[in-house]
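Help!! Second protein's tokens look totally different from the first
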Amino acid sequence: KMTQQMRDLQLAQARKPPGPSSPNAAKRLYRNLSGKFRVNYTSFDEGSLAARGEKEKLRKSYLFQSNAALFEAVELQDLDRVQELLKQYSPEELDLNTPNSEGLLPLDIAIMTNNAPIAKALLQAGAKESPHFVSLESRSLHLSTLVREAEQRVNELTAQVVNEAPNADCSEKEKQLRAWEWRYRLYKRMKAGFEHARVPDAPTNVHLSVASSSSVQVTFWEPLNVNSAVVTKYKVEWSCSSTFSPLLGEAVIDKLKNLHFTIRGLVSGTAYYVRVSAYNMKGWGPPQASMPPSAIPSNWREYDGRAPRRRGQAEALDHLLGQVKTVHQHCVCHEPCKNQPQSRKHSVSKSLKHLFHPGSKFLKTLKRGLYLTAIFYKDDNILVTHEDQIPVVEIDDTYSCLLMQDFLWFTKVSCMWDEILWLRQCVTVSQSSCSCILQTRFKMLLAISQMQGLLGIQDLGQVFFEPVKDKQGNILIVTLKEVKTNQTFESVRWVPICKLQTSRKSVSSPEEPTALDTLLISLQDKLAYHQHSSHALSPGLYLGYLKLCSAVDQIRVLVPEQLPNILCHVKIRSNPNISREEWEWLQKMASMEERVPAEPEADTSQNHLFQELQVAIKELMTLVNIPLQEAKDFRLYSQEVLDFGGQVSFLLLLPPSDDVCTAPGQNNPYTPRSGFLTLPLQIFELGEER
């Protein structure tokens, strides 16, 4: 037995792989392997660092060449090349404000050669003047030095070219001579431009307006006289005295893309005087006082101390929703959730049946009923199922209720995509009433949950403002969402929209198109509507036109197709604020019995608003195709200014009270031109909130 154990031990040892003969041998093997790997890693790191260093050198060399190219383009007065470089590179990459070897910046060369287009392009890109020119004398001395040195270099090279025999060196000297002759002429032209320049005239159209209860805004234009040098900055000064003594403050504006400045931190109810002056390389020009001469910081709400309409509303609604959720946590509808562990077997079997139920998949064809479809798009592509169909789920195959009321309720639910499960639990408790409306709305919530589950996403987007119908009795509620990132979805894939429309057209019936056919035919219009709905107005004061039309079950509002979330409108001015003085004048106009209001005094903010309103009303009437003589009975809504986020505000122009809302069958002789549509009022309100 012992002999057999020894044989087994020898066999076992023979099967083991050969290892190091000793611990020292194992250490030597580890050191050798580690050394090899260390050599490889080190060589890799050094190689990558060297490659990165080489790339950085190439990059710096390339940027240096672009900086040299910019100087050359400015010197050659090549405006197209300058604009191309400014568009291609950032100011930092171009070293736009780093002087060259002569102590000059690109902007210095442009303004001293009086090249206004190039100078303005450089200024808008953030170019500055050289900091070396602290005075007129220093600039003059620097230019004289450049001219003298260039002249001296030309004389030296001329003598060398004349005295030397023709050879390769002589040819190179001739090239240098031509280059220095050109530079000598450039410096002489710059010196002459500086000597003949004079200080700029005063800015024009200096307009002062009230921006808020603690600020005023001044806007202005360039000086009219173009014979002086290019203006490179402006100075705004303000004071409580018309003599500007003492000055309360001043600001220098060297970013000339937009010629305006807002003076903040002022005292409400105090008059402030403002003036503006321009600067060029010869110094500051005379100041120009604003029109009107002064402005008093204020806001129209100070007229009667009115608080903002929406102050605290969002917080109150959130609080109310929280209270409702708290109450429903103890509701009967949540008992199944609490008792879930005891009924696990039943719930599991029910969920398994749900997986094989036809309703748990996207539909291929429509039968008579109410359906939900979700359109997700990105650029020119759209999400479809693996059968190349737009995702559709069934809501109700026996729908017979009033569609508009249920549809408007659905649009409100679209503001709470993340709360669908909670809403389903709340609606379930009321099903015992067998109300047709509650049954349909519960089925809507089920369909939403089904669509969310199949797509693997909660947010289904914005509801299109009207359902799509066909003669077979099918009704499609459509949601739209633009995907701007590489987002993944379940059970669907991307295909080009044109391909989907072509394939659907080949199998559809042109005589009796289904709701899906109609949807695909009008898909581009619906996507355009969705994109336009997300556009925002630029800051300013607008004049809006309120026109409604009523039907049996809804009221609709007239809106432009390009901005369907806003009333028909034109812009009055860029400043959205209405001052207290302007609002007082509007109130007086509204209370006057005369149809033609008296024009306010000249040189006042009220007169400026009066002129702006006249222009805006004419433009708006032309836009909505209403003869100007018919607008004599129109009126401004004088109860409030509609504020939207502090940056956009509206004054409303209303037709006569009998014509604000057109009743069914009532003739409207003035139909707006193309480019308008009518939205259900509730849909418009939701779009406005978004």
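Here's the second one for comparison:
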Amino acid sequence: MSKITTELLLERAVPRSTRLRKIETLNLSKLQLKTGDLDPRLFSRLRHLQKLDLSDNLLDKFPNSLTLPDLRVLNCNNNKLEDVTALKQFPLLEELTYENNVYLTLNDDYKVMFLLQNLRLLNGKDITKLANHVRCVNSRKLTSKVTAHWEKFFRDQLPEKYTAEQVKSIKKKFLQSVQTNVVYGPSSLSEFTRWRVKMIAEEFLAYSLGLELNTDPEPEEKTEENEEESAESPSEAAEDVGQVGDLSSYIKNVTVASSKRKRNHSKSGSGNKRSKSQANTEEEAEDVSAEPLHFLQCHSKGNSREDFKTQLWSCVFEPLLDCGARKDPIVSSSRTVATCGGESVCLIDCETGTVLKKYKVATEEFFSVAWTTLTMVISDSQKKSHNILAAAGRRGIVKLIHVAADFCYGEIKAHKKPIATVCFSPTQETHLFTASYDKRIALWDIGIPDCDYNFKASQLLVLEVLSIPLRIALVPPCPEQYLLAGCESGCFAWNIKLDKDQKSRHFEAIFQFPDEDGSMTTSHRVDGLAFLNDDVVVSKSSKPGCIYLWSWSRSFDTKGKGCQRTVSAVILAELEWSMTDLSYLTLSTCPAKEYVFCGDEKGGVWMYHLSNYTTAWSSAKGKRSDKRIPPTQILKWPELRANGEQLTEIFINNVVSDPTFTYLVVLTSVNITAIWKKS
């Protein structure tokens, strides 16, 4: 039953009233109201309401049909609002306040200035001049850019006589392209710009092609950037810890040889380096038909476009999350990836290439990022799931970022030396492992922040390592019991079960592998480690030009009970790989599609599709593959040019696919993030 009744409205009227239609001022603050409590049928009777106070409630959005035709003043302070576009239903609104709504940003201020033509005061400030600029100058500039983008890239794609399907297809491509490429104003307003560009583009198509205009689209997902209060230069706006900085989505001064981005009419045989990737193996039985979508330069030191030295190290796709009111047909969690390198962490939409958010710490060099989903209490009786991003690096500090709120809400001083890698437990949402150059792996409970972002982190366990841990992986069938680590001096396993008394533990097993001479060794750097499925481990590199696949269960079972001991890895197969002796080119897996990925020292991405082998490996007596397995395909790095000069010596530090292998994100040694899409 709704908390709002006719009697309550009459009682909370100022002054009290006997009839709803006579109420001009209404105070509904501090009633713990939720969006569902605002009954449009009841509010439609408030025909003469001019002032409404909804502050200090739990509203996350406004219903679209409250029907308050005479509303002039609205107070929404201290709520949980996520979107402001529904406020356009109050066209006479002159004064609006919505301070202390953590999900609203500067982008939302600009949206209401555009939507509400009569708005004079926003959060107590006179915005008359700025609003006029937004409605007139900003709109005129964006309209010009949208029109130019159509003329340059899309007009020739539409034949003189076109079908409805052709129009539908060109509309979809144009809307995606124009939102990605049309840039105007400070980077802190990129989300507002994208919102307006989409609106202008739809109006343009409706006018030019006679398409039906969607006049009431769903509110877009907030891809806001926690902007500064003033329009600073990108370099100034990026300095604050946890704040979002420059969103230079594309490498403006880098070109791909022999083609232009997003051109669809290149002739075959023209040497187009952005066409379908070529197989570079002896067996060309399978071609995954991956195409490069974007090359981004978004981790530059000091936002410099001349920075081709910053190393990019880690990327992880955001977990799926029900976005509710923030659902957006353009941007979804499944294609959003977090990347890190240098002083920044970026969130990128893989389809559009848009850098959605950017976090910078001027004194940091980030090495690793990891996601978890926390169920947070946002009121006394309401819980909501939010994705939290952990980022760590050279300073030994873990930054905790509430992405939806664009807020770095805390940090954990985890180690006194750099943190090489981090990962969350798949079964305990608050359990975070940090592996450090201090030769320790620590398990932390990061806690769950309250509505004021107060949290308490505690250290649960410390694993002693003989050398620096480089990669860590929880064993899929028992992630609360065993952890594997690839280290500078070998591959180790620990029992991490928390029911044991000791808080500091030594390894239980060290695995030995064949070396170049064929003899078994434990002393080698393992800089790549991942599980292909519940049992098959993929690791490198005890032998040049080789990636090993081995059985966790059959290897560890040979240890038996008792003290720690050396065990031989039960090798299932070897994968052909580059003969380079360069370290820290790590590997990854896509278990759902049974793929292994690893980059090389020449910009190539080696892909291995192993579905034909895994069934045989799963048997208790599965035999080792006799020959090295060649890559299914090698994606060749295109010829990129910066300021007219070709980029050389491109090392692929990391390659990660999303769980469905739709997108492949490639991190390089030259400050370029490449995004490929599987056709």
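Reply: Different proteins will give different token patterns, so don't panic. The chain has a mean pLDDT of 83.
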